[in-house]
Amino acid sequence: MSISNAIVHQFFRNSTTNALQLRADELGIDEPLHDLLGQVKNAFYNRSNKQYGRFSDEAGHVKALAGQWASRSLGFVTLTEQWMKHLQTELIARELDIEGYWLFAQETLEQGDQLWFFHFKHKPGLYLSHDLDLGDAAMIDFSRLGFGGVIDLAALSRKDAQYLTLSFGFGDRSLQVALLDVVNFVDTLDTSVDTDRFMAIVKAYSETLPTEKCANYRRKAIEYCTEQDKLGETVVCNDISVALASAQDPARSESLVTFMQQTEPEAKAEFIPDRKSLKKYLRYTGKSKEVSISFSNDILGKNVNFNPENESLTITNLPAALLKQLKEELGQL
């Protein structure tokens, strides 16, 4: 990780108080800052509610600021100060309450620069000094990180269709609409559609493999996509095809990517996996007021059988704990 610029500001607003504290200079680039951004990024990548898109085509304050910073016609401190003042103006106008700190950081990667912004709060804590004295401390609460996002500055300069990724966190529900408006965000990518389409291709391909390899191939494909999601990476179809080669029939020359090119040539060769969509391929889940059922996809047709005519499930090899409860209820133990 290579951080070139970073700064933190504080904003607190409720019905009686409106306080914006702006730091005058950038943070020093040191190990604690790298650790801070590293933890923020991990929390961001581990979220399942990310949204992908771009700035609205209409003129917007944050859009203008990001463009000016990308072209280096605006200083980093000024960028973040103007951003925070715009946030303050919008939330006051909407009479919304907020508290906490805002981190802005630019990270330089091989593929281009990224501008991170994140809202976080602190929690009370204790510390021991070098003299072993006990004192109070205010600590960043990484378990309650709020709204945040990242702008791919190279993609922004190219005016790509997708260069802005956002995510909401703990306690953001009442602020969601306002924060999206502040950033001028437009959702341009439906990751669930892309994930469903790819998994349909995987299913079709796996059904051409020997029966004993079919379910295992699909499971490994889901695991691969899930891991890419956790890393904040896209799924490149050629890469997953190579990675799963050992799970297919060794005598089969046609790979997943070849099958995809022949049957679905217009499908995306690279996509962002959707975590919620992937979960439904791992487990069947459903509940009503009286019943909650969840089981692995692998046992459908084995320990669990579905009859579509009368819409019923037959379950064998029940979990030991459930079996014990049922027998106790019938007085058989």
From TrEMBL:
<dbReference type="GO" id="GO:0043590">
    <property type="term" value="C:bacterial nucleoid"/>
</dbReference>
<comment type="similarity">
    <text>Belongs to the YejK family.</text>
</comment>
<dbReference type="GO" id="GO:0003727">
    <property type="term" value="F:single-stranded RNA binding"/>
</dbReference>
<protein>
    <submittedName>
        <fullName>Nucleoid-associated protein NdpA</fullName>
    </submittedName>
</protein>
<keyword id="KW-0963">Cytoplasm</keyword>
<dbReference type="InterPro" id="IPR007358">
    <property type="entry name" value="Nucleoid_associated_NdpA"/>
</dbReference>
<dbReference type="Pfam" id="PF04245">
    <property type="entry name" value="NA37"/>
</dbReference>
<dbReference type="GO" id="GO:0003690">
    <property type="term" value="F:double-stranded DNA binding"/>
</dbReference>
